[in-house]
Amino acid sequence: MPCPDPLDLSRLDDDVVTTAERALLDRHLAGCGDCRAEAADQRALRRAIGALVCPDAAVLARFVDDALEAERAEGVAAHVLACEACRDVVAWTREASATVAVGRETSRGRTSGRRRAGARGGRRSVSPFPGWAVGVGGAAAAAA
Question: What is the CA radius of gyration of the chain?
Fold first, then answer.
């Protein structure tokens, strides 16, 4: 197979190819160092651009819910660390979700002994990394 068009390599990385196209491109990449390098360059460029452009609300919600694939989550985490606006959105979403969760427990007559988010006063540090987040459910559903 001749080397594919760079657009086809980009489509492969975007996961918008058919199963047959994927198999053909994967076979070619296995034997062509030039195309593997091109594909790696495209991924690096995509990550660099992704660090500059704020993710949309649905992506941030999936990030908060720890529902992004690992590579995409790493890119969003890097962006959130560098972008104050996105960091604030993630922090607010986690705090709001925690407040809703505590409210649900209280309305059911169960109190967990936890204080409401923000009850300590002042700003608290909220990690943008999903694995370290307060248990949050439904932010992606709310954004959809």
Answer: 20
HSE-up (13 A, CA, CB side) for residue 62: 14
**Range scoring the smallest mean pLDDT among 36-40, 99-103, 107-111:** 107-111
Tokens read off for 89: 């959105």
Outline where DSSP puts E strands in 76-131: none
For tokens 């593997």, the residue is 36
Alpha-carbon distance of 144 to 141, in angstroms, equals: 5
pLDDT 10s digits, 49-73: 867 889 988 999 999 999 998 888 8
CA-wise closest residue to 94 among 66, 122, 55: 66
From 53, 58, 118, select the one nearest 80 (Cα to Cα): 53
SS3 57: helix
